[in-house]
User: What shape does this take?
Amino acid sequence: MPLLNTASETQPEIAAWRRSLHSRPELLFDVHETAKFVAEKLTAFGCDEVVTGIGRTGIVGLIRGRHGEGPAIGLRADMDALPITEATGLPYASQVPGRMHACGHDGHTAMLLGAARHLCETRNFKGSVAVIFQPAEEGGGGGREMVEDGMMERFAIRQVFGLHNEPGVPVGRFSIRAGSFMAAYDEITITVTGRGGHAAMPHQTIDPIFIGAQIISALQGIVARNTDPVDALVVSITKFHAGDAMNVIPPSAELAGTVRTLSKDVREAAETRIRATVEGVAKALGGAASLDYVRKYPVTVNHEAETQIAIAAARDVMGEGSIETEAKPIMGAEDFAFMLEARPGAMIFIGNGDTAWCHNPEYDFNDEAIPVGVSYWVRLAEMLLKP
Assistant: This one.
């Protein structure tokens, strides 16, 4: 099965949906207008059930096949945008200051809607397809919320699949790997306490800025000297706030950032070493420091059997050479990981062409990828639920 004729023919219409969503971005769980748009489309397509409010503002549309009872599978898209000011200058650019679809969730939503319409029209499968539209992927853990709200049990979902666009990869190509595919994501906040004083008399102070700088350097030693070089660990301090005056050494400082890992063992070891380093460096320099370590998203782990099914579906749509099956793991995180902890499944990446990378003010989803994504979703569903 090559690209669906209907996916190519309806590409302009689906792109229009996407651009409408792009112009009206919403954040985290506050995706009420987006969710309303999705629910209205699913109802118009003829989904057998359209359930809103799952995981607060998530939506599931259930489509039953025409070949009788069978298992249910889940196909997931994310709906939320990012707190970024758009710099594309496009006619359909964000109309909401400080918000934009800078990760392609508008495209993910539109492609899954296109697939849902086709599946409602054809129903050439046995069992049920649950199309999942998730809020709050960008740091809110909407995937976890939908799982904890009983989504898998309510719709008897046996397997679950996700798709994300990948800038820099040609349209029509896919990438995937079995096992750890995307990193766990944790947030750290470090509070350094010293003793403030006059900037001309540093010997009478305990400088929290100096201590913070030493902590930053020491944290990189955990990556370089405490972690096996074949394992992956990224520690990034992205905030450093201290002081208000040019001539005053402040009494305290705050640092914050992220920790990313690809295995549970490295994640455990990283937290232990970061805490010891933060507290030890501060104490050695006469101050004190505390660490708030918050575990956000687990490692996104693709299951072997489901990865092979995803590969087969991608090849069936775009040909033998269309997919990288041993793609390098990505240190970005995905809360689809929570769904993969609840049910076997796989996340696949789809080429977005030569565009800016995600989370960039100049990023835009490539509408030429729409027929590819729609065709992939349909083929995957029909392969998994073959009569």
The chain has two domains: 5-182+299-384, 184-297. The chain is about 35% helix and 25% strand.
